[in-house]
Specification:
By secondary structure, the protein is α+β, with helices and mostly antiparallel strands. The chain has helices at about 5-15, 25-30, 120-130, 205-220; strands at about 35-40, 70, 80, 85, 95-100, 105-115, 135-140, 150-155, 165-170, 180-185, 190-195. This is Sensor domain-containing protein.
Length: about 220
Amino acid sequence: MFAQPSTSKLISLVAAIAVGVLVGLVALLLGGCGARTSDAGSPGTPGSTARSANALLVGADDLPAGFAASAGQASTYRQQVCGVDLEPTKPVQTASARFSQGPLGPFVEQRVRVYDDDSATDVLADLREALKTCGSYDLPASGSSAAVRVAVQPLDVPQLGDESVAWRQAPDTQLPITTDVVLIRSGRTVALVTSYALKQAPDAATATQAATAAADLLHG
């Protein structure tokens, strides 16, 4: 899992990126049904794991001191980053969680996806290659919100899981919200971890700690 010149535009941006990948400001602070959401899918679906996607979510104890469960995460993160579709096929299981240190953050969100194909392998390979030369991408217009350019740069995070890719992004707006994003793959399961705050840039160490904990759960 970004501010904009207008409230509606801010809502659209944060909803689209949350890592990053964007959750609306109103949704961030007021929405959601709980700190964790899950769609277990069919347990017999080929490619699913023995554990449910919900069992792969980190907890507040895995994060820096002061984080607590917080409602408001968006369930989806499908979008294109530097021309790469982050979720080209439908997962068979999903789960998500959100944590905060206060109403303005910092925030940490995690989304888990389990697939019955190997599309996640291509996503990480394509994204890693794209980020070598991509300095920005355009978030298309949606509803009443105009298109926005989002600046990106690689984020120095240790390799996690079978493979991982990390970047920092911020929209070209009056009040940009910077988001650190880490995408981790283990087999056919993916964890997307985002870290951001509404009034300051995130601490990269927070994303690293959260992503490391997420990778440990994927590996276990």
